[in-house]
Each structure stands twice: as structure tokens, then as C-alpha cells.
Protein: Gingipain domain-containing protein
Organism: candidate division WOR-3 bacterium
Amino acid sequence: TYRRFRFPDCYLPPEKVLIGKPELPAVRVLIAVPDSAEVVVRAVGLDTIIAEDVVVYPRPEVRYDTADGGVLYWYEVFTKDETFYTKDEIVPKRIARVVRDGHFRNQRVLEVLLFPIRCNPNRNEVYVHSRIVLGLRFKGVCFYDTLGLGPFENLAHDLFLNYAELRKRHPIPENPPLPPPEVNYYTELKVPTNRADYLIITADKFLEPPYPTWYWIDKLAHWRCDHNRYDIVVVKMSDIYEEFPSPEEERWKSVRDFIRYVYYNWKSYNTGHVAYCLLIGDWDLVPSHIFWKPIFGYGPYLHAADCDLVDVEEDGIPDLTWGRIPGKDPKDEVYPVLRKTYEYEHNPHLGDWRRLGHGIKGRNPDEPPDAFDKWVKQTLPFFPTIGYDTISTRWYEQSAIEFTNELIENFSSGQLLAFYYDHGCPWKWCANFDTTKIYEVTNGRMQVVLYSLACYTAPFQWDHPQMKWDMHIGRGGRCFGEQWVYPLDNGAIAFIGSICPESYGFLDEGVRCAERTLVDQNWIIGHAFLPMAYSSFAELFGDPLLDLGDYTAYPDYPDLCVRPLGRDISLGFPYPYPREDDLIPITGAIWNIGAKDIINQRFKIRAELADPDGNVVWSKESWLSKLGSRDSVVLTTRFPASVLTPGVEYHLTITADVEDDIDESWEGNNQSTLTGIKILAFYPRMAGWPKELPVCQIPTLADLNGDGQAEIVVTVGMFLFVFTPDGNPLEGWPVKLSSLQSSAPVVADLDNNGRPEVIVFSRPNLFVFQADGIPYPGFPVEVPNWKDWD
């Protein structure tokens, strides 16, 4: 019997070479590191559980096919590499693997895969590391970014594993006063004194009369300038071609080279570098990077990769967030999107629909009824964490017509966000919900931001001469995503879908986008979308600076927020190892994500610690009277450890504006709870103890200095420490080892002189130290063939 492993937010590396080998999911993390330094990444697994007689399911082959009138779907074929399963070794060999080294704007970033589950396929053993300690070693000169990431600073705090710690050590200096923002229509582009935070790149004809598009481009540009306080630049393609020429068959490089020049040379007073880009025109009017490429070993498929236009460093990491209005016709395709984007923010339509999320689960008729349901179940719970309601449309046993009619009815009722999880193709979803059905949706100005987590629903390159799809099916003449955004009075205000086939990982990205919006409170659509573009073939139809939050919808109100799920709540030392008479510090952040400052208005903040039955065992109240728009304040207090009972799990809740003193746009996001607070015992401590060590092996006791008292000898990362009973380092210690992966120390009198030596293995060397920390003569020595037994 095979066992298949999954856990929340797990990731399966896409390499085809892994097919047939044990399927071991990874955790993807992004780590901010300094420039100009060689980075060595090492990981150590702790609290490892070993399971015997477990055969890990082999990685299946994923194949693509069409069904249900052209819907593209994938299915798995059992495949096993019998030779690999005879190997008597632990796989993967390393717990951590660097898969990308690039830059997000000014910040160098490593993408690292961590494997908490490994196995020995020959022995049928599985090793589960309950904890992983990740170590970084820098060689050479380290240059740390101190410019920051502009409007993406908060996103980086939530996205990068160590960004908060990096910013503590290398803070961003305060900016000087900024000049007033402007709207400019530059025709001379290679001018370093030009300034832009937001680029609008448009086909020439959309700025020419008699079409109304020029009017709405100008209105949107001035709204972004006045409302978002950004420098906006509108640029025609003819001017780009003139100053950044490229071969006819590679016209997309003109756009890329222009954006790259702007990024490095123009002024960006508000964002550090240009941060947003709206492309107005289809794939050939504002050229996209069109090329053939296999997907997971199949195809090839024709790509339209706008992400390559904004990848300034050419490292696979987009440096700007972007969106596209993929139209050719000014009147019926471009004008409606421009106008309703402007109206959505400038004259917002309010109502309960703005507090509603929609989860959609389709299925292939050959699949079980609950197929794809898990992604809906992961997405919808994010909405209630901030007081929003949810609806769902799930295709179980009902007919395709019943499912489609329910879908039309639910879309017509209006919702802020919708997430579809299932199969698709350029003109339809499952159950024959094709482009004709979109025009039966009558949601008026309650226009949805729609995430289509399916294959091929946003291929705006559908009319490329080399594209082979018959786009006359359904309403015809446009792809599925385009049909959603083009209606002026209905449909979607933005559509996020894929330009080619995808895999299960794309569905996981949809869940993460919901989390970034609702939990992390990234209400700018381009901020939630941008990380999705790191690992998928996603495209955004719409304005990347579109604001779904109350900052724009309710400009006359503040909006207090404690980010849900305990996102900004933490407990400090000595938790989780307190004495009974200790005080445990609590840190929590209160945000005002609304448009209006809170000035001279007192409101109460309350922190409550409760047991599993809801009984409050401790509470503390404080007051604030000032909090600026889009600002936050961090509060700290302490509670006595004595209120905790060892072995009992508590939860800590922070509530802002307890007595409803502030008239705000929404109160459903004023509370957040951190769960899982638990101690195993109270820990009496000697003076000088405890010591906070990042990772250590099991310590050894030995009297090294001959004073009759034992010292504590312990390996800590790349160092070997010796502590005296009062907690101080013994003279001559610590000493440096050769690797983060080192053994526990052993103490023995090797030369029978009455003074013990300390022995430790640190890849690839065996170290021996005298009692005073001096290396024993002849050591360290490299251990031959150490990889064979390590």
C-alpha cells in the first residue's frame, strides 16, 4: 500500500525527471539576502519522526486531454521508477535546495525548497522533520538594500521569510519631502529627468479621435495621480519603437527595453522605481512575448508572456506589477474597461455585495463529485475572518444546466471576489458555461474580481496566426477572460486567468491570492496578483492598481483593523519556557486601512487570554487617540505566566475599538485571535540561564577546567560552545567548525593526561579540541567517504 503525503501550502517541484520517483512535497520560502555575497544555505531537521514499512507513492505522470466540448483537463498516470526504489539512501539528500537566485526590485531574493518529509525507498522508511532550522552563511562583502520596496514594502514583510528581521537591522531612512505628483505624456523617452511611478503604455490609435478612449485614458491617469498620489506617464507605442527599436519578429523587446530604461533611469519619487504598468492593446498592438514552450513536458503551447516585459533583471522574477486591457476595438473592448475601472473607484457602488466572497467548484463528468472541493474549502474560510459572508456554487450531482443556471444567478447577485477551481479552455469553463453564458450575468455595477484557476481561460493571444483553437465556439471572437471584462454594465472589473495549461499548483496560488487579500490586507489587486506570476502563467486583465478595499470605497471613514488569524500577534521570551513568576510579553499591531485619519478620538484596545472553554484568564486594556490613514501602531504588554496551566492550549484575542467609539467603514475586521498558546511545564532557572540558541545538538557534561564542576558542551550551528554553571562561556570557547551540519560533541581523555578532549564531526571534518579550546595536534582532518555514512 502506498502513502501519499500532502500538507497546507505544500509544493511539488515540476521537474519531469522526478516522475516515477517518491513524491515528496516541499515548502517554498523566499529569503531576502545581501547583494554581492556568496550565500550558502543549510538546513537541519529537528524532532524527526521515523515511520517504518511506509512506501511513498511515486510521482505520477500528468497528461492533458480535452473533454466536455473542448475543456482542457489533466489527469494522472501511475508511473514507478523501479530502479530508483531499490536505492538504499535518503532522498532528497539535502533538506534545503536553492532553486532561484534573483532580485525583486532592489532586494536580492533566494527561492528555497524545504523538504520536511524524506524517505529511504529501499528500506520503506519515512523521516518527518517536525522542525527545520535554516541557516545562511555569507561569504564576501555584504551590501544590504536600504532603499526598500516602495509600495510593496508590506507585501515583502508577509512574503519573505526574514524581511522583518532584515528591516530591523537595516532600516529605511526617512524620505525627504516629495514634489507634487504629475500626469505627463512624454514623447522623448531617453530623458533621465522624466518621472514615473505608474506607466500607461498604449497603442497609438487609442489616443486618437474620434474614439472616446483617449478621454478615459486621461481621466484614469488623473484619477491615479490625484487619488493614489503617483506620477503617471502615458506613452504611445510609436514613440517606444522610435527610441527602442527591435526586429519586426521581436517587437516585444522594444517594450521590455523601454520599461527597463525607465526602471533604471527615470525618477520615481513615490515608489523608488516605477512600480505599475498598464498595457492598453492586444498582444500585437502592445506586443507581448509570444513563443512556443512545452508545459510539464507536453505541448509545446503558444505563450504570451507579459511577465517577461516587466522582468527587469531577467531572472524570472517580475519587478513591476502589471495588467492588460487586451483589446483591439476602441469602442467595444477598450473603452468599457477604462470607464468602468474609473467609475468603480471614483463613484463606487456600495452595498452588502462588497462584503461577499464566492467559491466555485466544477468538475469533469468522469471525476468524483467532490473533485476540486478542497480548494474552495481552503479559500472561503478567509472571508469570515474579517466578517465577510460567502456563497458557493458547487457541481456535485446536479445536471450541468442546473449548475450553470445557479452560477449565473449567484454571479448576478453581486460579490467582491470570486474563485473558480476546475478545468477550462479558451472559451469556457466546465458544464458548458461558455462565453455566451457570461452575457446572461446581470450584476450591473456589482462587478466581480474573478480568479479563474483553470487551464487556458485568459489566452489573449488566441488570434495569433499560429494559434490553433477554433474561437468561433460560444459567443466567439474573444477568449473567455476577455468576454468577462468587456461588458460595460456587467461582468468583471478584473479577471485573472492563465494564458496556457496549468497544474494543481495554479489552484494553490488562487488560495494564496485570497489569503494575501483578506488576511494580509493587500487590497490592491496587483499586489495580490504579483507573487502569483512568480510560478504560473497568470495574466491580469484590468488595472493593477485597482483598489478593492474601503480606502477607496469609503473615502470619508477610517477603518481599524487587527489583521486576522493572529497575523501581527506574537509572544516573546521567556515563552514557551517560563518560570511561574515570569511575565510574558505580547506584541500586536493595530492598523487603520481606511482613508481618513483618526485624530483626537479615544478608542479602547483590549487583549484577552482565554482557555479552551472561552473562560478569560487574563485581560488588559489600553487607549489610543491617534492613528493615521494607512498607518499602524505596535502595542506591547505582558501577562503573568502563572495564569497558564501546563498542557492546556490557550488563545489570545486582540480587539480594537472595544466600545465602538470610532465611526468606521467596517467593524468586522477589528478582532484577531492567535491560537495554540501552550506550555508543557514551568521551568525554574539558575542565574545566567536560560540561553536562547537558534539550533543545537544534545549537550554533553564534562569538567574541562578541573574545578570540580561540570561545564556544558554543546554544538550550536557552526560553533562549539562551552558554558560554565553560571551561564558564561568558558575561556577559550566558543570555537568555529566547518559546517552548519555538525554532530553532538563527545568528551574523552584521548591521551591519558588527565585533561579531557572534545570531539565533534562537522562536515566534512573531524575536529578534536583540547580543554582550553586549542585544536588538538593533527586535527581537524577530513573524513574519507563521509557522504557514504552521513
Notes: The first helix runs from residue 153 to 159. The first strand starts at residue 2 and ends at 3.
